[in-house]
Amino acid sequence: MNNTPTKDRAGYVDKLIDDATQSLSRDEVLLVAIGGETSNFVRFNHTLVRQAGSVDQMHASIDLSSGQRHCSMTVGLSGELDSDTAVFASAIDRLREQREAVPDDPYFMYATEVSSTSQVNPGTIPGGDEIVDTIGGLAEGTDLVGIWAAGEQFSAFANSLGQRNWFSSTTFNLDWSLYLRADKATKQQYAGFDWSTEVFERKLAEQRAHLAILERDPVVLAPGDYRAFLSAAATNEIVSMLMWGGFGIRSHRTTDSPLVKMTSEGRTLSPMVTISEDTTNGVAPNFESKGFMRPATVPLITDGAFVQPLVSPRSSREYDVATNGANSDESPASVSMLGGDLDTSSVIGALDTGLLISNLWYLNFSDRPNCRMTGMTRFATFWVENGEVVAPVAPMRFDDSAYGLLGDRLVALTSEAELTLDPFSYGARSTESSRLPGALVNDMRFTL
What we know:
With 448 residues, this protein is an alpha+beta fold. The protein has two domains: 6-209, PmbA/TldD superfamily (PmbA/TldD fold); 216-446, no CATH class. 23% of the residues lie in helices and 38% in strands. The protein contains ten helices and 22 strands. The protein has helices spanning 6-21, 81-99, 128-138, 197-214, 232-243, 249-253, 260-264, 313-319, 347-351, 402-408; strands at residues 28-45, 48-66, 69-77, 117-121, 143-159, 164-181, 184-192, 224-230, 275-278, 297-302, 305-306, 334-337, 354-357, 360-367, 372-377, 381-385, 388-392, 397-401, 410-413, 418-421, 433-436, 439-446. The strands form four sheets. Strands 1, 2, 3, 4, 5, 6 and 7 form a seven-stranded mixed β-sheet that branches. Helix 1 packs across helix 2. The longest helix has 19 residues, at 81-99.
C-alpha cells in the first residue's frame, strides 16, 4: 500500500465509495468500515535491537443490504484506486449473490441520518534511529526486553447515503521489562501521543530502584487480607475484567454481566469511582462500523452508581433503546476513570505497611455474578513496612470482588491517571486505551 498522507487517504476512500455506489440498485445500501495503519516496530532483548520492521496495511469491511437482508465480508486493500475499485466490484457481486440465500435480520440497523466528520490527532514521535539510540543509551547496563510500536492508525466509515467519516491518531507504545535473573524482572509501559525522554528516564530510574530491591531475599507471606497499593497498571487489569461484559446492555439484560447486581439490586462501588467511555481522549474512532457517532463521553459509573450501559446498534433494535455508538461487543474502547487526591509521590507513606503491587497477571472470574476475580502478583511486588520498601514478595494469588477493591475497601485513588494503550498487535495494532489512577485498598484478599 502506498504510504500516502492522511488527506490523500481520505480522498481515496471518497472516490472508492463513490465508484462503488454507482453499481448499486435503488433498494441497496452499502456500508463500508475501513481500518489501517502505518506502523514501525522494534523488538529489544539485552537492550539490543533484535528485530525491526514496518507495517503498512489497510482493510475494509463491506456490508451490502436490501431491506433487512444483508451480507458482509472483509477485504484487503492496496491503496491503489484502480485495483481496489475492482476488488470492491467483485465483493459487491459476491455479496449480492449470497444475500439471496439469507433470511431477514430483525436486528440489522445502520445510521440513516448523514453525519460526516474528520478528525486527525497528530503526535510527536522520534524516528526509528533516534528512538533506538535513546532507549539503548538510557537503558545501558540493563537487560531491557520489549517492543516499540509507533505510527499512524486510521479508521473511516462511508456509505452509499453520502456519509463520510475519517479518524486518525499517531501514537507510540513502548512495552518493556528490565530482566534481572530467573523469574525476577520489573515491567513498565510508556505510551501516548507525544514522546518525552524525561518521562522515559523517570520510569527507567524507578525500575532500576526496583531491580536493586529484587536482589534481596523475597518475603513469603501467608494467605490473608493485606493493605495494598495497586499501580495504574494493576488497576487496569481489574478494570479490564469489568469491561468483559460489565457495561453492555445485552450482558445486563441476559444477566451475564459481572456488574449485573448494580442494575438488578442497586449495588454500588465507592463514591470515589467514576468511570466513562472517553472517546475524546482515546485512540479509537468517534464513530462505529454502522455509521453511528459516539458521544465525546458516555458516563458509565458516576460516584459509584451505575448510570447507563453501552448500546450497540443491534441491541438498540432488539431492546428498543437508543444506541450510544458502542461497538458490537459493547465494551469501552476508551475507558477512563477519574483520579482522586492521593499524590503519587506520597503512595508509600500512605500505604504505610502492606503490599506495593506493580502488576497483576492471569486474571479470570472466580464468581462472575458477584464480580469476584482471581489472579497473580508477579513482577515487582514489594513488602512495605512503616513507609519503607523492605523486600520483594514471592508471587501470590488474590481472590477478591470489585465491590470490595473498588467499593467499601477502597481508601484512595491517585490524583494522576495514566494513559495505557493496549499492546495487542496480532493482525493490527489495537485502538483500545485506558486512563486510570492507582488505587490504595484495605484488606485485599490473598488465598495462596
